[in-house]
Amino acid sequence: MKITFYGHACIGIEVSGKHILVDPFITANEKATYIDVNEIKADYILLTHAHQDHTLDVEEIAKRTNAIIVSNYETAVYYGNKGFQYHPMNHGGSWQFDFGKVKYVAAVHSSSFADGTYGGNPGGFVIEGEHKNIYISGDTALTMDMKLIPMRTKLDLAIFPIGNNFTMDVEDAIIAADFVDCDKILGCHYDTFGFIVINHDEAKKKFFDAGKDLMLLDIGESISL
């Protein structure tokens, strides 16, 4: 399983020969200007919620790739009504796709499209594929629901927002790592704009002192599990 960070909360996942793109926000991200959105592959586009900083490039990429859009019912149907392929989910539900199993789990946040359309309840994804399991929390506060995840799935990686203000901060993300029983964390949703700028060295040290590994990838950088 190969994981690529495209900036903000956008993650690319290559698993079982398929390309999954999560929360594509690239073309308006000033820190990701060197990423060519037209070169990004996508068989599936997974959306944690409807906010523009997670959905901006969905339609352009889906139109080019014919990707299947996977999200909560309201968000998925929103794109289905525009003629895109979609697969609706809701909290607690899972589905066996051709690359692996996906479960839609709870998040504490808000969700609406830029045009004001209600985007349904926000969530996160637990993805199981190639004998590796990852949890993408989506934009969320720290929540006790996270404790349910390791009851079903042993995680190899958790992807958490750490920018504070709109989501968890670093300290809450450390607690979240304990809740999901995973010491390998990939940080996202930080530095993109002024409200969520963090001190990288300080964040890594706090995780290290807690016995955990926080990865802050450069935009375009990849890791393999």
Going by helix content, strand content and strand pairing, the class is alpha/beta
Number of strands: 14
The percent range for helix content is 10-25%
User: Would you identify the regions where 5 or more consecutive residues have pLDDT less than 50?
Assistant: none
Strand order of the biggest β-sheet: 6-5-4-3-2-1-14
**Individual helix count:** 6
Overview of the structural elements:
By secondary structure, the chain is α/β, with parallel strands linked by helices. The strands form 2 sheets. Strands 6-5-4-3-2-1-14 form a 7-stranded mixed sheet, with helices on one face. Helix content is 20%, strand content 28%. It has helices spanning 52-55, 58-65, 73-80, 149-152, 170-179, 200-209; strands spanning 2-5, 11-15, 18-22, 44-46, 68-72, 86-89, 94-96, 101-106, 123-129, 132-136, 157-161, 184-188, 213-215, 222-224.
Task: State the gist of this model.
The chain has 225 residues and is α/β, with parallel strands linked by helices. Helix content is 20%, strand content 28%.
SSE layout and pairing:
Blueprint: E1 2-5, E2 11-15, E3 18-22, E4 44-46, H1 52-55, H2 58-65, E5 68-72, H3 73-80, E6 86-89, E7 94-96, E8 101-106, E9 123-129, E10 132-136, H4 149-152, E11 157-161, H5 170-179, E12 184-188, H6 200-209, E13 213-215, E14 222-224
Parallel strand pairs: 3-4, 4-5, 5-6, 10-11, 11-12, 12-13
Antiparallel strand pairs: 1-2, 1-14, 2-3, 7-8, 8-9, 9-10
